[in-house]
Amino acid sequence: MFAAPLDQVRTLYRTLLVFAAVSLLILVAGLVEFAYFEPPGQHTGLKATIAGVYQYDPDHKTTVGPDRTSFPRTVQFAAVVDWSTLPKNVVVDARWYDGFGNVVGSVGPATPDQLADQTIVPVKVPPGFSHNLPGHYVFVVERYEGGVPVEVIGRRVVLVER
Amino acid sequence: MGALTSARRANPRGRRPARYAIALAIAVALSLVLVASSILNYVYLDTVAGRTSLYGLLAVALIALGTFIGVRAVDRDPARRRRDFIRAAVLLGLAALLWLLLIDVFIFTNAAGPGVAAICALACLPTTAFGLWVVRRIDRNEKEPWRLVLVAAAWGAVVATSLVIWAESLWQEIAIRTLVPGPGFDVSTAFSAGILEELAKGSAVVLLFLVMRNEFDDVVDGIVYGAAVGLGFNFMESIAYMTNLYAIFAPDGVGGYAAGFQWYARQVLGLFFGHATYTAFVGAGVGIARQLPTTRKKLIAIAAGFLVAIAAHFAWDAWINLFPIEKNNFAILEIHLRTLIMTGPFTAAVVALLLLGLHIESQALADQFRKEAALGSGAITPDEVPILMSPWRRFQQRLRVLGRGGLRAYIRLARLQAAQVDLAMERWHRERQEVDSPLEVDQEMRRQVIALREQFVRVISGG
Q1: Of A6, A7, A8, A9, which to mutate for an interface test with B (greatest number of B Cβ within 10 Å)?
Q2: Per-residue pLDDT reduced to its tens digit, B280-310
Q3: Chain B touched by A131 (CB under 8 Å)
Q4: Which of B106, B323, B381, B433 could bridge B338 with an S-S bond, Cβ 3.0-4.6 Å?
Q5: Does residue A58 lie in a domain region?
Q6: For residue A141, what is the domain's CATH number?
Q7: Is there a contact between A13 and B187 if contact means CB atoms under 8 Å apart?
Q8: Are A100 and B245 within 8 A, CB to CB?
Q9: What ipTM does this complex have?
C-alpha cells in the first residue's frame, strides 16, 4: 500500500514512542514524589489554634495591635499559636513561607510542650534586604510523621503589600 | 504556496472534510472554557488575574476573529485575500495591544509602571523575533508562511497565556489551601504548569493541523509551528516575570537586576531550551500523526507528543531545586549548566526528531523531483533536479539571477522554486495517500509552475 518512506515515518513514530515511554516514567516519578510528601490517609482531624497574625515588635519580641490579613512591606509581623490545644504526643512545627516558597520563619519540629514558650512565630526579613518582599505569605502548622511533615493542621495566608 | 492555493481554488471541494468540524468543536470548547473559567475565577477568587481574565475576553475574541479571517483568506481570490489579511493583521495587532495593556494595567502597572512594562516588552521583542526567524529557517526545504508562524506565536502569547492564568490560579488556590508546603506542593505546581500550559499551547498546534492541512506537511512543520507557539508563550511570560520581579525588588534597589536576570534566563538562555522545546514535541507528535495511516496511530502519536511536552515541562518545574545556584563566582556557570542538564536532553531529542524528519523529507522530495522530471510535464526539467534537491544550490541559483536580473528576477525565481517544491510535496503526500484533494490539483499545480517559469523567463530576458 505504502512506498519506502513509510518505514522512515514509522521510525519517527517509534522514536517518539520511546520518548513518550521515558516521559511516562518521569511523570510516574513525579507522582511517587508527590505521594511521599503528601501521603494519603494522614488526615487526623487535628486542628491547631492560630490566635492570629499581628504586627511584631522585634525589640521587645512581642506582638502589637489587632489580628490582620495584610501588612505594608515595611511592617514586621508574626503569627501567634496556642500550642496547648494540641495533644502532647504529636510532633509539630510552624513555618512561614514567602511568595517564592522560601521558609522565612519557623519553630519546631517538637512536641507542643517543648514549643510552649515559642508561641510567637515572626517572619524574618531575608538577608540583604531591608524589608519583607511583597506577595502572599503562608503560615502553616504541620504535623510530623517519620520525620516528614504529613498534614497541615493550621493555616493562615496574609498579604504583604507592594 | 501560491501555486498550491490557486490549485485549491481551481478545484473547489464539494464537502468540507470532517477535520474542520473537529477544529470547530475544539475552538468552541476552548471559548467556553475561557468564558466559564474567567467568570468563575472573577466571582469566587476575585483576584487581579481574575479581573484581567474577564476583561481580557475582548482581546481573546479579537485574536479568534483575526485568526479566522486570516486563515480563511488563504482560500480567497487575490483581491479579497489581501483585504482579509489586512483585516486579520489589524485585529491581531489590536488584540495584542489590548492584552498587553490589560496585563500592564491590572497586574503590574500599579507597581512597576507602564514605562517598565513597555521596556520589558521592547527588550523581549528582538530576541523572540530572532527565535521565530531561526525556527522558520530550520525548515530548509519548504519554509512555512510567516502569517501562520506569527498566528502560532500570537496564540501562544495571548490565547494560551489567558487559558492558563485562570486554570493555574484555581489550581494554586486549591493547593495552597490543601497541601503541605514544600516538595509535594512544588510537584503539584509543576504538574499544573506542565499539564495546563502544554494543553493550552498544544491546542493551537492541533487547530493549525486540522484547519491548515495544506501547510502542515510532516514532523518538520509540526516542530516549527510548535516551537513558534512556545516562543509566543515565552514572550508573554517573560514580560510578566520581568515586570513582576522588578516591582518586588525595586524598593531594595535591585529591580533592574532582577528583571534583567529574568530577561537573560528566559529570552537568551531559555529561548530555545524552554517553552519552544516543550511545545515543539506537541508539534512533532501532530506532524508525525499527519503521515500515519490509521486513526489509532494518529491519536497515539498526538498523545505521545503531548506526553513528552508535559513531562519535559514538569521535570524543569518540579526538580529545578535539585540544582540550587550558590551565591559565588560560579553562579553564572551553574545557571547555564542547570539549563543544559535539565532541558538539554529534551532539546536534543526534539533536534533528533527534526534532523530525522528533514532527512526523510529531503529524500522524498528528491525522489519526487526525479519522478516529475521523468514525466516530461515541463514543470520540472531534468537539469533542475540537482538544484532543487539542495536548498544551498537553490539559493546560489537565486543569487546568480539577482546579479543578472535584479531583485524582481530573484523573487520570480524564488516563487518558481517554491511552487516546484510544493508540487513535489503534493506528489509525495499523494503517493502516500495522505491528501483528500482531487487528482486535478496536481495538474493545476503543474500549470502554475509552468506559468511562473514563463514569468521568470520574461523578467530575466528583459521582456
Answers
A1: A9
A2: 999 999 999 988 988 999 999 999 999 999 9
A3: yes
A4: B323
A5: yes
A6: 2.60.40
A7: no
A8: no
A9: 0.82
Question: How far is Cα A120 from Cα A57, in angstroms, rounded to an integer?
Answer: 11
Task: Quote the pTM value.
Answer: 0.82
Highest mean pLDDT: which range of A52-56, A117-121, B110-114, B132-136 = B132-136
Helix (H, G, I), strand (E, B) or coil at A52: strand
Q: Side chain identity at B385, as an amino acid letter?
A: V
- Length of chain A (residues): 162
Structural contact between residues B156 and B204, judged by C-beta atoms closer than 8 angstroms? yes
CB count within 10 Å of CB B404 equals: 10
Residue with cell 532539546: B347
| A81, β-bridge pairs | A50
Compute the C-alpha angle A132/A137/A138, nearest 5°. Answer: 145
CA angle B385, B389, B395 (to 5 degrees): 105
Pairwise CB contact (< 8 Å): A1 & B305: no
How many Å apart are CA B48 and CA B248, to the nearest integer?
16
Please check whether residue A42 lies inside any domain of the structure: no
For A20, the closest of B110, B249, B308 (CB atoms) is B308
> Taking CA B405 as the corner, what is the angle to CA B402 and CA B408, rounded to the nearest 5 degrees?
80
Task: Convert the pLDDT of each residue in A24-41 to its tens digit.
Answer: 999 999 999 999 888 887
Determine, for residues B308 and A5 on separate chains, whether the beta-carbon distance falls below 8 Å.
Answer: no
Please give the residue range of the domain that contains residue A113: 49-161
Distance CA B81, CA B25 (A): 25
What span, in angstroms and rounded, lies between the C-alpha atoms of B217 and B288? 9
Whether B214 shows a pLDDT value over 80: the answer reads no
Does the N-terminal peptide bond of residue A5 adopt cis geometry, omega within 30 degrees of 0? no
Helices (H), A38-65: none
* Residue A60 shares a structural domain with residue A122: yes
How many Cβ atoms from other residues are within 10 Å of residue A41's Cβ? 6
CA distance B19 to chain A (A): 22
Q: Give the DSSP H or E segment for A150.
A: strand A148-161
For residues B438 and B8, give the distance between their C-alpha atoms in angstroms, rounded to a whole number.
9
Q: Which pLDDT belongs to residue B100? A: 60
Whether residue B271 contacts residue B313, with contact meaning beta carbons closer than 8 Å, is answered with: no
Note whether A65 and A110 are same-domain residues. Answer: yes
Q: What is the pLDDT of residues B406-421, one digit of tens each?
A: 898 999 999 999 999 9
**A100 vs A140, B143, B298, B448, CA distance in Å?**
15, 42, 41, 59
Could you tell me if A71 and A129 lie in one domain? yes
Contact B59, B99 (CB under 8 A): yes
* CA B361 to chain CA mean position, Å: 20
Residue A78: strand pairing partners: A54, A122
Instruction: Indicate if A64 and A134 belong to the same structural domain.
Output: yes
Whole-angstrom distance, CA of residue A128 vs CA of residue A138: 22
A43, part of any domain:
no
Mutate to test the interface with A, among B171, B288, B313, B317 (most CBs of A within 10 A): B288
**Residue B381: closest CA among B389, B390, B391, B372:** B372
